[in-house]
Task: structure prediction
Amino acid sequence: MATRPPPPDDPDARAKEAYWRNYLENFNRTQTMARPYLSRIPSGPRCQLCGSPFHGFGGGLMKLIGKAQSSVNPKMCNACENVMLKHRGGAEVPSSMLFADVRGSTSLAETMTAGEFRDRMDRFYSAASEAVFANNGVVDKFVGDEVVAIFSPMLGLDHPSRAVAAGLDLLRATGHADPGGPWIPVGAGVHTGRVWFGAVGDGGRVELTVLGDPVNTTARLASEAGTGELLVSVDAATAAGLDAALERRPLELKGKAQATEVVTLRVDGG
Result:
């Protein structure tokens, strides 16, 4: 079970929060320039933070510079994990989130063998990871048939537009712009707000995570999106510089007292 953030009056907690705030809110040019290149070196899976590949030619190349898949957390390389262990904690920062999930995965699974379904989902995870990494985002987690990604200021102050671009790239990668239709049906949501972003965990294991109401809002948007739709909250759409003339509509989200205004984007011209 993940540990809770330390009390705010804890000096060590304040120091770690200061570290994370500086890390997350300030554009990191070196990391930003490196990630797109690292994420293109075959082959996945790769570190969710720096994009270093773990297997194949790329994995061997990374080992030469001291990077390898962590034996404790397979989603991180040992170098990034060591940084997270040293600076366990986080800070509240403005960020953008992308949630995307497969529509009708249960019905889809009924049409194929378990092995075929697993291959289809692996293809979806790969397409999602590539779309997120290409737009300088961090893959937070895969939960069943859903991907959760974070876009923070440390990889560019344009995080809202990067989150939107990643969502559209994923819809294209899954075939929603193709004449024959998608090879897997996907709906997605993007929202921007202040979240707690950091590393939590017990013992020698840490996990990157993001917490807060904006995360819940993004999840609700994704659950409401139809096949081939990217629902973008007006907050994120405005911050991303989307055309102000795009049609907006109020959406009643589960658990939210007020309606959320959204813009609907598609990649098929609809």
The first helix runs from residue 11 to 25.
